[in-house]
Amino acid sequence: MEVANSRDFQWKTLAPLPSRRVYSTLVEAGGQVFAIGGCDDNGVPMDCFEVYSPEADQWTALPPMPTARAGVAVATLGKRIMVIGGVGVNQTPLKIVEMYNVDEGKWKKRNSLREAAMGISVTAKDYRVYAAGGMGCDLRPHNYLQHYDMLKDIWVSLAAMPTPRYAATSFLRGTKIYVLGGRQSKYAINAFEVFDTETRSWTKFPNIPNKRAFSSFVPTEDKLFSLGGLRQGRLYRQPKFMRTVDVFDIEQGGWMKMERSFYLKKRRADFVAGYLKGRVVVAGGLGEALGTAVTLGGRGVLLQSGEQGKRTPYGDGLQGTDEGCWPVLPASLCVPREPADRPGVGGGLPPREEQVGEPAPDAHPALRLLQHRGQELPAGGRRGEPGAEQRGGSPLRLRFLTDPSPRGGTPLPAGAGPAPGGAELCEHCSSRPGSLALPAGG
Fold it and tell me: Where is the composition biased (Low complexity) (predicted)?
C-alpha cells in the first residue's frame, strides 16, 4: 500500500451536534453518521437520535430511542442499527436491545441480553452480532460471550471468555474475533484472547506487553497497534501518561520489540485513533501539556516544551533519536514532516520557529474530521464509553464524540488536562519494524 504523505491531511470543522452530550456513540451506516444517546449536562441519559449528512453538512433529528441511555454498544447489520445495553436513567446497566431500520425510519425492540450490562464489546459477522464481556449491576465484569441471530431474534450463549472484563476492544479478522484489554473494577488488564467463530473456542494470545488504562488499539492489514494510555498508580507508584507503542504481528502471532523512537511524541490517554491510507492517526485525549508546537528549519521537526519546561528539538527530551515515523498534526493545521536523514543533535540548520496554527477552541460538541482526499477519519477529544471500537462501513472510517469529563474513577496525574490538541501520524510500514518478540506465558 502506498503510504500517504502528511501534507495530504487537513482538518475540517463540521456542523455541531444539536445538543451537548457525553458518552454518546457514533456509528456509520449507508454513508451517514448516526449519533445515539448520551448524557446531558446534568448526567441524565438521553433518548436523542440524530443523523449527519456529509453532503448537506447538517444534522437531522430522527425518532428518539424507545429507551433513554448512554454508553451503549452499537453494531450495524446492513441498514439496521442495533443498540445494546448501556446505562439507563436510574444509572444502572440495561439488558434492553433495540434496532433501528434506516429505510423504514422505525425502532423495534429485540430480544434482551441474558443480563443487564454496560461496557460490552461487539462485533458483527454474517448478520450475527457477537457481544463479549461487560459490567453488570453488581459492578462485576462478565465473561459472557453471546451471539445474536437477527433472522431468529435470539441470543445464544457461547464459550465464556477466559478473562472477565468490560470496556474491551474487539475486532474481526476472517473467522476470528480478537478481544484486547479492558478493565476489571477500575484497573486495566492486559489480557489478549481470540475466539474462533468456526470452532467456537477461545485461544489465549501473548498478553499486551504494557498494562495501561485508556489506551487505544488500531488494527491494520497485518498488525495491531497498542498506543499510549495511562499507567495507573499503585501503592508505591504514581499514575503516569504514556507514549508507549506496542505492535502485534497478526501473522506471526507475537508482539514486536519496538524502539523508543517509535513511541508517540506526546504522552496521552483516552484519545481517538484510527488507520487511514497506510497511517495510524491519533488525536486529542488527556495528557501533560507540553507547550506550543512549532517547526524546526525546513525539516518540519516538532519543537515543544518538555516536562521540565525546557525546549528540545525532538520533543519529550528524546534528542538525537529518529522520529521520522511520527509527523505531527496540531489542531487546526498540519505540520508537514518528511522522513529524512538529519544530523545529530547540535548539527544542521539553526532552529527557525514557524507558526503552524492556533490551538483549536473547545469544539464540544462539534464533530471534527481529518480528511484525506475524500476519505474521512473523525477525531477530537475523548471517546464515548464504552464500545469505541471500529464498527461497520468503510474500514477507513472511525467516528467518535468529544467528552471533556474524566470517567471511571481512575486517579490521574497531578496537573493532568486535555492534551495540547495535537494529532500525530505513524507510517504503518515503518523502515524500523523491530524484531519479533514472543513473551513467555500469556
Answer: 408-423
Q: Are strands 121-125 and 106-110 parallel, antiparallel or unpaired?
A: unpaired
Q: What's the CA gap between 57 and 368, in Å, rounded? A: 12
CB of 346 closer than 8 Å to CB of 319: no
- Contact between residue 246 and residue 229 where contact means Cβ atoms under 8 Å apart: no
Sign, CA torsion 364/226/128/117? negative
Predicted structure pTM score: 0.71
**Grid coordinates standing for 303?**
519543537
User: CA of 345: how far to CAs of 60, 319, 365, in Å?
Assistant: 54, 6, 42
Q: Kindly tell me the sign of the dihedral angle through the C-alpha atoms of 160, 161, 163, 164.
A: negative
Secondary structure (3-state) at 264: coil
Measured in residues, the chain has a length of: 442
For residue 244, the one-letter residue type is: T
Q: What dihedral angle (degrees, nearest 10) is formed by the CA atoms of 404, 17, 11, 304?
A: -10
Beta strands in 150-253 (DSSP E): 154-157, 169-173, 176-180, 183-184, 187-188, 192-196, 201-204, 216-219, 223-227, 230-231, 240-241, 245-249
In this structure, is the dihedral angle defined by the CA atoms of residues 141, 28, 76 and 48, taken in order, positive or negative? Answer: positive
Q: Where are the beta strands (DSSP E) in 384-437?
A: 417-418, 423-427, 435-437
Instruction: Write the single-letter amino acid at 226.
Output: S
* DSSP percent split of the chain into helix, strand, coil, nearest 5: 0, 40, 60
Q: Are 413 and 240 in contact (CB under 8 A)?
A: yes
Cβ count near 99 (within 10 Å): 19
CA dist 169 → 48, 63, 213 (Å): 25, 29, 12
CA dihedral 69, 75, 79, 80 (to 10 degrees): -50
pLDDT digits (tens, 9 = 90+) for 298-345: 222 222 223 332 222 222 222 222 233 555 443 322 222 333 333 322
CATH fold of the domain at 6-437: Neuraminidase (2.120.10)
Strands of 308-374 (E only): list them: 311-312, 328-329, 368-372
Q: How far apart are CA 14 and CA 382, in angstroms?
A: 17
Domain-by-domain residue ranges, the chain? Answer: 6-437
Burial environment of residue 103 by CB neighbours within 10 A (0 to 12, 13 to 18, 19 or more): exposed
Cis preceding linkage at 386, omega within 30: yes
**Separation between Cα atoms, residue 93 and residue 75, nearest integer Å:** 18
